[in-house]
Amino acid sequence: MRDIKASLNWITDILKELKIPFHIAGGLAAIAHGSNRELLDIDIDIPENKFDLLKERVNGFIVNGPSHVKDEHWDLLLITLNHYGQVIDISGAYQTKIFNQETQEWCQISTNFLNSELIEIFGLKVPVISREELLAYKKILARTVDLVDIEAIKASHLTQLQQFIEQYNFATLISQENGNMLVSHVPIILYRDLGEYGTLAWHVAKQNPHAKSFDGNENALLIFHGPHSYISPQWYKSYPNVPTWNYAVVRAYGNPQEITNDDLINDLTQMVMQQEKNSNYVIPNDYMLKLMNHIVGFRMQITKIENIFKLGQNRNQEDQEGMILGLLNSDNGLSLADLMKSIQIRNYKQEE
């Protein structure tokens, strides 16, 4: 019976020992990035000039190749292994072409091992093709399995961003009016299921310039700031290095619209309930209505959402562990260390 974890550990240990650059691609990469489809084979990309070196070490497990393979979807250098029932396909990274279903032309895949992300799969931290590169080539292939993966990966990523917004929900609101920049700082509540990406709600004081700035047509940006910290080069295992700054932010765009008093009451109630989960404190309605005369409420359906998580994902495992240890021992790095562990470690459990 095949053992995906054992086979993944076996082949990645060999690649590391031979110092061959690689990353996980294909179905296993899709699963690592949020798809829940069945895994058949393990797909790995390596440089074409390393095939001969690898061949010497895995010769007893080769069932095909190394050889040039071209079918209706792929044009690549390929070696196929069978490790005790588990198929492992190892492809060339730099000369692979895929067939574009839309243009009906062959196109080159862009591969950059420096963009790979270290993700935990079966308890093993392995380099995985970046989410952006994976989605890019799956969009071009546009097979049924690719379209299923794309939707699942996007949904998983959106959930992660929505969780970030809910955790770090004090946002910076930015817009422009008559050539002037307007900036406010507002607590936010998120309605996940209103709109494609969700809807954000907030309020400002009536004397705030933003109170009269939105009619549903003006553009606005909300920035959600997560933890951040200085990263010392002394924390890395590798040498030499330079200091840097790690941080995480999410940006949401849309066209805010002023809301009715009924919606504002609902939003304020939701916000209080989120913050006062186990409280029996009751705000009298007449008192709330009196204070509402001094504020204006808005909602914004998110039309675009993006994130920048600069968390050292391109670093090797030893450097990442060194960063996390350094942050845990620093004065203000605990939150960032926790975020780095949660963002980079994603588990895919093999079913029994």
Ordered list of secondary-structure elements with their pairings:
Elements: H1 4-17, E1 23-25, H2 26-32, E2 42-46, H3 51-58, E3 62-70, E4 74-83, E5 86-92, E6 97-100, E7 105-108, E8 117-121, E9 124-128, H4 131-141, H5 144-167, E10 170-177, E11 180-187, E12 189-191, E13 199-205, E14 220-231, E15 244-254, E16 257-258, H6 261-275, H7 285-292, E17 295-310, H8 317-328, H9 334-344
Parallel strand pairs: 2-5
Antiparallel strand pairs: 1-2, 3-4, 4-5, 4-6, 6-7, 8-9, 10-11, 10-14, 12-13, 13-17, 14-15, 15-17, 16-17
Helix pairs in contact: 4-5, 8-9
CATH superfamily of the largest domain: Electron Transport, Fmn-binding Protein, Chain A
Identify the CATH class of the largest domain: Mainly Beta
How many helices? The count is 9
Mean pLDDT: 91
User: What gyration radius follows from the Cα positions, in whole Å?
Assistant: 25 Å
Structural class: alpha+beta
The beta-strand count equals: 17
What kind of sheet is the major sheet? 8 strands, antiparallel
Uncertain stretches of 5 or more adjacent residues = 345-352
The N- and C-terminal alpha carbons lie at a distance of 11 Å
Number of domains: 2
Secondary-structure element pattern, one letter each: HEHEHEEEEEEEHHEEEEEEEHHEHH
